[in-house]
Specification:
The chain has 399 residues and is of the alpha/beta class. Helix content is 44%, strand content 14%. Helix 1 packs across helix 16, helix 4 packs across helix 5 and helix 9 crosses helix 14.
């Protein structure tokens, strides 16, 4: 079965790429011939190729919410990129098109032109505003796909509260649970994160972006450090875009202002995330409106106690058990209280970690891959039932 995957980015650190690669790691051995389409060369290319996927390049057009010149010329660019995607799908004889993120609409229209089934992955967050824009987008996404995968129940509600239910399916991002299985923490990794023997190490992982609300993490760290001075903190992630670089500078100034320079390490992006997670004593995510929170699922798989924002999909991930603690969004003191609760009670923290590992089974890549494989087989056997595609049977007027 040949599947054309449309992916909008090829960045060093990318949750959609991590999730797609994990999924392909299961689907390719099942019989999927994967063709991944990217807008340009980048660090993800050899990673896809190492799995056995074939990588292609096309001028993909990303949806934006602003009123810039790029947004004004979007329809023309979308038409051009749709033609390119359709030509590529023909050349590889694709049986199905899978759009890996909702910011691409080429799959909607190329699948219509080619009469091929289309799967759309909604990997966005839970903030569906402005309403009038999302009303139109949700209608387009749903009508233009045979199946819509939402990465959490919280993101599925973006569709369901607008009356779209039949095609929508919750599909958690897959995690290779074996990679995060039991193993001893690495002293070397802990040292690179700023943690030394006898020092509790609290960390967060993700892009350094304002939506991650790392200011709340830093302010919570300052409160914890006042109560437990030996605690160390790590921010594991990179800043690439201009807005991210400016945000990192702001965070660095805040760290200095709060007297945290000797307590907090900016550790940069890492590829050894399983080792990083095992090296942390506690994982924290202060993000706003997360649609899933892959790093939370990874921390849970590594049996780390977690503290997350009580917003978006994050409470859903840790609900089993419960498998983690929640704090109000943007409330540094609330996060600090939850962190201190776990640091001051190691048996309680260990129990949360055990429940987190048990709850992480719902992210198992093999189980999720089997579901997608079955869905692909169903759709490719019913390619003529695409909602935008007219029947091959001539109409009465044509007769």
């Amino acid at each position: 079965m040949r599947v054309l995957y449309l992916n909008p980015f090829s960045q060093e650190v990318s949750g959609p790429d991590e999730s797609l690669r994990t999924l392909l790691g299961d689907l390719i051995p099942r019989g999927v011939e994967a063709h991944v389409v990217l807008p340009a060369a980048g660090p993800q290319v050899p990673r896809y190729q190492a799995l056995g996927a074939r990588v292609h390049f096309a001028p993909l057009s990303v949806l934006r919410r602003d009123l810039s010149l790029d947004a004004a010329t979007y329809p023309l660019r979308l038409a051009r990129s749709t033609v390119a995607v359709a030509a590529l799908a023909r050349s590889v004889e694709a049986d199905l098109i899978h759009t890996n993120m909702e910011v691409l609409l080429e799959g909607v229209f190329a699948s219509t032109l080619l009469r091929k089934p289309h799967v759309l992955h909604y990997r966005g967050n839970t903030l569906d505003r402005p309403k009038i824009v999302f009303d139109a987008l949700v209608a387009t996404w749903t009508r233009g796909a045979d199946r819509v995968y939402c990465i959490s129940g919280a993101t599925a509600e973006v569709f369901r509260r607008r009356g779209h239910r039949d095609k929508v399916e919750v599909l958690y991002n897959p995690i290779d649970l074996a990679a995060f299985g039991p193993a001893s923490p690495s002293p070397e990794v802990r040292a690179t994160l700023g943690g030394r023997p006898g020092q509790p190490l609290v960390g967060t992982v993700g892009r350094i972006h304002p939506r991650k609300d790392l200011e709340t993490f830093v302010r919570a760290a300052a409160a914890v450090a006042r109560a437990v001075p030996e605690t160390r903190f790590a921010i594991i992630g990179s800043a690439e875009a201009e807005v991210e670089l400016a945000y990192q500078e702001r965070l660095s100034r805040l760290v200095t202002e709060l007297g945290l320079a000797d307590h907090l390490t900016f550790a940069g992006a890492r590829r050894d995330i399983p080792a990083v997670m095992r090296s942390l004593d506690l994982f924290v995510l202060t993000s706003r409106h997360e649609g899933f929170g892959r790093v939370v699922a990874e921390a849970m798989a590594a049996a780390r106690p977690v503290v997350v924002t009580d917003e978006g999909a994050l409470p859903e991930l840790v609900a089993d058990g419960p498998a983690g603690l929640c704090a109000a969004p943007g409330e540094a003191d609330a996060f600090a209280q939850q962190i201190l609760r776990l640091l001051r009670n190691p048996p309680d923290a260990a129990a949360f970690g055990t429940r987190a590992r048990d709850a992480a089974r719902k992210f198992d890549a093999t189980t999720i891959g089997a579901r997608v494989w079955d869905r692909y087989r169903q759709l490719t056997g019913a390619a003529d039932r695409h909602p935008f595609k007219r029947s091959a049977e001539p109409s009465a007027r044509a007769r």
